[in-house]
Amino acid sequence: MTNDPDPFEQGERAAHQNIPAEANPYQDGSEQHALWAAGHEKIAGASEANESEDI
What we know:
single chain; mainly alpha; 0% strand; globular
């Protein structure tokens, strides 16, 4: 088992902390960039969906 950070989990944490997707620390086009973005979108997308239901 490695101790490398999981980009998907990092993206999820960033979204929970209201860090914008543009703050993705990985090189654009890399697998890590895509994983980080997917994790961020999972959380941010769910938050946005909940907000729109409240309207």
